[in-house]
Amino acid sequence: MSGEMVKQTIQIYARVKPLARRQQAGIYSVGEDEKSASSLEIIVPRDLADGFVNNKRESYKFKFQKIFDQEAKQDAVFESIAKPVAECALAGYNGTIFAYGQTGSGKTFTITGGAERYSDRGIIPRTLSYIFQQLEKDSSKVYTTHVSYLEIYNECGYDLLDPRHEASRLEDLPKVTIMEDPDQNIHLKNLSLQQATNEEEALNLLFLGDTNRMIAETPMNQASTRSHCIFTIHISSKEPGSATIRRSKLHLVDLAGSERVAKTGVGGQLLTEAKYINLSLHYLEQVIIALAEKHRSHIPYRNSMMTSVLRDSLGGNCMTTMIATLSLDKRNIDESISTCRFAQRVALIKNEAVLNEEIDPRLMIIQLKKVIQELKDELAMVTGERRTEELTQEELLQLDEIIKTFLEDPDPESTLDVGADMRKIKHCFNYIKQLINRTNIPDRSLLSPDITGDEDTNTPEKKEELKKLRDLLHQRDNEINILVSMLKKEKKKAQNALFQLSAGSSGLAVSESSLSISLEEGQRPSACVNVEDTQDFGSSVHRSAFLPRRTGSGEEMSLGRQEAFEIFKRDYVDSVTIEDNKQLLKKRFAEAKSLGEKVNEVRNKINHLKGEITQRHMQRAALELPAN
Ligand SMILES: Nc1ncnc2c1ncn2[C@@H]1O[C@H](COP(=O)(O)OP(=O)(O)OP(=O)(O)O)[C@@H](O)[C@H]1O
């Protein structure tokens, strides 16, 4: 892990549920006293406090990031609370949003949503929709998304996406268990990660999980108020060709109802453990108390499954947000006060979210292999150890290309760099030796005037002549260079023309003919180059252009070349990029295909309707005729 870190306390929000018709309103007010905070004041009514020795406070004030009052709509809640967390998850940070409150206060409504109206969709479907919209827009990265849906009931974990839910009783399903690795990372056994490539697939998984949650619920077992549900979106992203992968998890958590067995006194004195309905919420509170205390080294995460699963979200590597759901009618004032108190403690917890980056091992291996080869070559040079295995066909072709470029380069400063490999250096010498041997220049003194040792060259006239001849040679060299570059241009033009020609006849022919050119060039044996050949740059192209076209080029490649091509494909540094782009292309193709199918369907419908209309017209015309 590396990269940037964001330190942030857990953000707390409150949401007040609208009053039901017969409920008596409690007294509270929402104040926007500061720029980045709001406050909620709850007044304890006199009649509730009656009967006690009344020296207790009557008004309680709590601070939240923002308070959503009764009329707040789902889209506003999503925009303020969930969108920023979803953005962080897209950027590679972990995020958690959890709803905490008493039974019936609107946790499920806020996290999942109501089923009656589309506008009642909660945070999970809206977040999925937002995330997939963003992924569609960003073609600079390759994204993979998975979801998982965990239910914790009575300290046992269940996979809500397990298809066996329908047929089996909850007790018979395999339990999700916690495993901890040596680095203290939590892994969940028996919890499935299902890939979702688009919003629809992800929503189907959410519905499947919600259905499974309801199946397990019987009148005797009001699981939803007693169980915790954690819907997790797992996102991984990578730039094509880059070795770095970012992974993030976004937990959307609907906790169990937080109410206590016996109502607390209005003052809210602490109750003993036994009075908690839900022991795991008690342990959650313990963790939060421990985290809020300074200098506490031991945090009791392990006491419950829920705190173990959410360990990263509480005082760890995560951007966490809590929504306190409140049912502020008169009867629930004390529960609301205890929910708010809990939230105030949660707000003290500091998290440190780091960018979750890791290196893709496939690309790392390719890069390291290259480095190893370079080091081996250098080592062989230094130790004088000879490398005996023959250079491959591919290496020889590459070398010839480098030598040719070097020889053609008019710049006298240019160097021939083939790396620290004795075999390659030898090959270069051989190449140049053969080149010289094959140039049948009659006057050898022109080739290397300094080593002929001819006495006559010392006379002033001879010297003058020699200088002239050298100048002439230099001039000729320049002319040759100009001609060579002209030829190259012509070659390119010819190739382009060839391309256009073939493209005109069929798209496939283009790739075939261009392949035949490269093969033709590649076939020239590297050791038999002569000056005539090297200067006849255009010839191979022209020749190949009129050669019969190869069909099924792959079959006609020699075994060695085919193998070399496979190796090249595998080891080419951009192979992963190409692979990634292929995947993207495949995805786009599938999208285009399904759109095409839809268009066809609609077209068929239109045709069908047209047919019906024509028939109606005819019927009507037939009816009207006798009347006229
Ligand atoms: N903001 C809201 N607007 C409209 N209806 C709401 C709102 N909040 C909650 N409700 C309704 O109140 C009822 C109870 O809410 P919900 O089931 O979300 O509570 P809960 O806190 O999840 O309860 P439990 O702990 O039993 O799961 C539901 O019928 C829900 O539709």
Mean pLDDT: 79
Number of beta strands: 17
The CATH class name of the largest domain reads Alpha Beta
Largest sheet properties: 10 strands, mixed
Strand content: 15-25%
**Portion of residues in helices?**
40-55%
* Uncertain stretches: 261-276, 449-454, 506-555
**Shape assignment:** elongated
- Taken together, the total number of domains comes to 3
Unique ligands: adenosine-5'-triphosphate
The CATH architecture term of the largest domain is: 3-Layer(aba) Sandwich
CATH superfamily of the largest domain, please?
Answer: Kinesin motor domain
Distance separating the two termini = 87 Å
Which secondary-structure class do the elements indicate?
Answer: alpha+beta
Rg over alpha carbons: 39 Å
Q: Tally the helices: what do you get?
A: 20
CATH-derived topology of the largest domain: Kinesin
Outline of this structure?
The chain has 628 residues and is an alpha+beta fold. It has helices at 46-49, 74-91, 107-111, 123-137, 199-215, 223-226, 279-292, 305-309, 333-346, 361-383, 393-408, 422-438, 444-447, 460-505, 507-523, 531-535, 539-546, 553-556, 559-571, 575-627, and strands at 5-9, 11-16, 27-34, 37-43, 59-64, 66-68, 95-101, 142-153, 156-159, 177-180, 186-189, 194-195, 228-238, 244-254, 319-326, 350-354, 357-359. The chain has 20 helices and 17 strands.
Explain how this protein is built:
The protein has 628 residues and is of the alpha+beta class. The chain has three domains: 5-219 and 227-359, Kinesin motor domain (Kinesin, 3-Layer(aba) Sandwich), CATH 3.40.850.10; 361-571, no CATH class; 574-628. It has helices spanning 46-49, 74-91, 107-111, 123-137, 199-215, 223-226, 279-292, 305-309, 333-346, 361-383, 393-408, 422-438, 444-447, 460-505, 507-523, 531-535, 539-546, 553-556, 559-571, 575-627, and strands spanning 5-9, 11-16, 27-34, 37-43, 59-64, 66-68, 95-101, 142-153, 156-159, 177-180, 186-189, 194-195, 228-238, 244-254, 319-326, 350-354, 357-359. Strands 2, 6, 7, 8, 9, 12, 13, 14, 15 and 17 form a ten-stranded mixed sheet that branches. Strands 3-4-5 form a three-stranded antiparallel sheet, with helices on one face. A two-stranded antiparallel ribbon has the order 1-16. Helix 4 (123-137) packs antiparallel against helix 5, helix 11 packs across helix 12 (422-438) and helix 14 runs antiparallel to helix 15. The longest helix has 53 residues, at 575-627. Residues 261-276, 449-454 and 506-555 have low confidence and may be disordered. The structure holds adenosine-5'-triphosphate (ATP). The site of adenosine-5'-triphosphate has 15 residues, from helix 3 and helix 6. Adenosine-5'-triphosphate (ATP) is lined by residues 17-18, 101, 103-109, 114, 224-225, 257, 325.
